TrEMBL record:
The lineage of its organism: Bacteria, Pseudomonadati, Pseudomonadota, Gammaproteobacteria, Pseudomonadales. It comes from Marinobacter albus. Residues 8-144 form the UspA domain. This is Universal stress protein. It comes from the Bacteria. Belongs to the universal stress protein A family.
């Protein structure tokens, strides 16, 4: 599959909001005739804690794999009967940064993601992944609310 061909990419995590986003992304992919890709980012904060704790590299990689399998399986269950995922993408690092880098490297990506609905104070002081992506993305982004 050409990395520059249009695709619908849904950002998945362990939240109910990302499952709602996966359902909408599946409907968009089906309606538009584009492939659906599942994307998750293993947070750098989790990896850093494990590195500092002295966990072996192979165990960290196994943890990433387990995390992605859990997230992707939940997303696949949510979209079952709508469409199939053409690809699963696992990234590591800061979620907003990694998703934006992915979009920059894959022109034509239409990103769908859920908004977790953090409190107004938290969103104003820390920002949210969805807000950062909407602010900085070069491409189509659909944010699915609660």
């Amino acid at each position: 599959m050409d990395k520059d061909s249009p695709s619908i990419v849904v950002a998945c995590d362990e939240s109910v909001h990302s499952l709602n986003a996966a359902k909408m992304a599946a409907e968009l992919a089906d309606a538009m005739g584009h492939p659906l890709k599942l994307l998750t980012v293993y947070p750098a904060s989790k990896e850093s804690v494990l590195v500092i704790s002295g966990v072996e590299h192979s165990e960290i990689e196994a943890g990433k794999h387990d995390y992605s399998r859990k997230v992707f399986d939940a997303a696949k269950d949510a979209i079952r009967g709508r469409t199939d995922a053409a690809e699963e993408v696992l990234l590591s690092g800061d979620p907003a940064h990694e998703i934006l880098e992915y979009m920059n490297a894959h022109p034509g990506t239409h990103l769908v993601l859920g908004r977790r609905g953090h409190s107004l104070v938290r969103s104003l002081t820390l920002g949210s992944v969805s807000e950062k992506i909407v602010r900085h993305a070069h491409g189509a982004v659909t944010v699915v609310g609660a």
